[in-house]
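Researcher: Re-running this chain for the archive, since the previous output was lost when a drive failed. Same request as before.
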Amino acid sequence: MATQEWAARGDKMELRCPKCNSTNLKKVSFAHHDRLFRSEGRTRLRAVVVGGGGPDLVLGMATTRGTDQSALSKELTPPVKWSYLKVIGWSVLAFLCAGWLVFYVNTVTTNATTVLSAPLTAFGLISGGVFVLLLFVVWKHNHSNYQTQYAQWDRSFICERCGTASQQVLH
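Model: Regenerated structure tokens:
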């Protein structure tokens, strides 16, 4: 039974499922971790191999790590922060690919003798502006949207009777 202790008054409040009115609720974070399984296995291989060059000894060792997750655990996964590294990596890749295209069109097709030109400079400035804008969008998500989504996820409970996820207001 899910209850909330009131620190000020010592009263108890029962949390109830909005669909079936059950008190058998579990915090979403606990339900997510309960159905997340991590495993690690180690193997060793020892063998003697006989071939055209004579006998030989083969030794080997491997470590396998894995994670198994239930469908419910996947559904209850907490929100994630966006990665600055991914934005930087994809931006560098896009800049190099598009930059090469602008460079090629500007210098090779027009037989230009100088590498630096107005189209290449404009491309660099626009790319820099887009990169800064993308970093701002990621920063805004991580410092605003993510925190709101995580707080909602952290306040959520799942009914172990009917499977309904709901946010419970704790006064």
